[in-house]
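Re: folding output
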Amino acid sequence: MAQAESEKSYEVSAEKFFKAVSEYENYPKFVDGMKNVKAERNADATITAHYDLSMMSKDMSYTLKIKENPAQGEVNWTLVKSDFFKVNNGSWKITSTGPNSCKVRYALEVEFSFSVPSLILKGIVKGSLPTMMNSFFERARSL
């Protein structure tokens, strides 16, 4: 299993960054490898989101249960089902540091259902975080 966490400050409001994170259906427009997302808001205030993704030269689908707390700038998720992931849990924490700035923390824990050497898995997860977070920043700036 690989775990990674990254924290960075951005020159965009916390509200815009949260909006970029929580508009799941728009991910294919700016998240590398994301093909399609269908999100359903549930009666219990959670979101069930189904993702179609191309990663490591493989097409994969997975479903997450997401809980948002806009007042706290938090988004947390857990894996519901997947043919490729055994584990996919994580969180966003977006904290305002001014009217047009925020601090963003992203944490992720993943494990694939097929064998990936731990060193390679950790490299993939940690190596992709800065690029992925910057994609959300660019999206937030465009909102």
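--- second protein (sequence, then structure) ---
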Amino acid sequence: MTAFDYDLFVIGAGSGGVRAARIAAGHGARVAVAEEHKVGGTCVIRGCVPKKLLVYGAHFAEDLVDARRFGWQLEGKSFDWLTLRDNVLAEVDRLNGLYINTLNSHDVTIYNSRATFIDPHTLDVGGERITAARILIATGARPWIPDYPGAEHGITSNEVFHLEKLPKRLVIAGGGYIANEFAGIFHEFGVHVTLINRGDTILREWDPALRDRLLSISTAKGLRFVFNCAMQSIEKTEEGVRINLRDDDPIEADMFIWAVGRRPNVEGLGLEAAGVELDERGAIKVDLDSQTNVPHIHAVGDVTDRVQLTPVAIREGHAFADTMFGNKPWRVDYRCIPSAVFSNPPLGSVGMTEVEARSTLGAVKIFTSDFKPMRNVLAGRNERALYKLIVDQTTDKVVGAHMIGPDAPEILQAVAIAIKAGLTKAQFDDTIALHPTMSEELVLMK
């Protein structure tokens, strides 16, 4: 490997790329990373982390109202968007610094430039020719903006964290987790939110009982949903934007957000020069070891469009580094990956949905608990939580868990361990409840 400048060159310093670089360097490899933006990637800089901080900030809107029922007298409360925005951005900068320190402490060289393939082993990095024995592509994905007239008048989740002021009227296009999360956040900040979706439901891949419950609660809170919506164009107006629809009246708004999906970042990498193949979705094609059709070039994370979740990218990067540089080969297990939607209230899910279980296993048992959390009772909120367990009738194993309600993602992480371990419903039932908690419903379902 000494004939090359580096043993490993990583393109992209997001979660997957940083993990791969750190582990490979720990195994003794000479490693470099190229990142043209901030180190940390989508999750840390413009995704999961800052969004979750906005979720926390939005929750205070209801918490402060509910506090009166718990004896707290709060007068003159108000919300300042710029305070929250600047504190969130400061936290992002802090995390960016920590990621840089992690790479530096492992003697990973950082290039603050774009890297482009010249040939399969050679990269142009900010005008410098650099060679590497192995190259890992971890460039992630970006929000997709459809080709509509006036599409440029909308923003994406990337820009949300930098707004100078909050809009009074907001339209969000999309029905997935990003659309529903930002809809809930902005609604709690006092924005009138309309979510438009070309389909007939939200969260299409989720268990129907959960998505119907979220839709019902969101509608009751005052969010507006427009389904089967065919957009025609977006016009710039004096006050903001006008969204023209094919079969409905135009919608006037101060701001429009695209949240209709994400696309792998493959453009401008010079993949043709390296001979790297893409799949039919435009993502980099890889095998179970994250290897492309070019044996020494690998790819992990969202650029492969396998599972667009940060912990998955991290694990893929770790497996790659251990396998290629640590003489410890292993592969990522994509079964039973837990996921969450940080909507209001949030959702958590792991394993099979009811539909998947019935089509795959045949005989299944469904257990549900539909209840009002204790806090909501005293607060006078008419919001009910819903927990659902999917059980293989033949083996009694719990093969899926789905929940909506306060702290659902926090509770689900522990449930995911049980399902991954193959525990049975009888073992759930044999566990003594922790009372009074919401999570005790998981061991009380009959």
